[in-house]
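Quick one:
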Amino acid sequence: MTEKKPDKEILDAEIVEESPTAPVEVPEPDYSEGGVPSFDHVRDRIEQRYTTSLGSTELAGLGGKEDVASLDKKIADRDKAAKDKLAEIRRAMREQ
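Output:
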């Protein structure tokens, strides 16, 4: 009779749970170890807020050279010009 040999050696081992390690506290970029923001970080934040407010003002039409009423008039004029051009093209096609 042929005796079977195990393909792999069986190891008797104990499972050891890893002990939790405390997370390493890394200070945020642009901050000192004490949590104080750097001058460059503060300046960048102020500039970002300023440009955001400028953009919002422009989108609202409050601070630009043109107000909302003049922009609405330009849109209406453009739509009227488009309708007139379409009517002209349709007339030209009928005449052919």
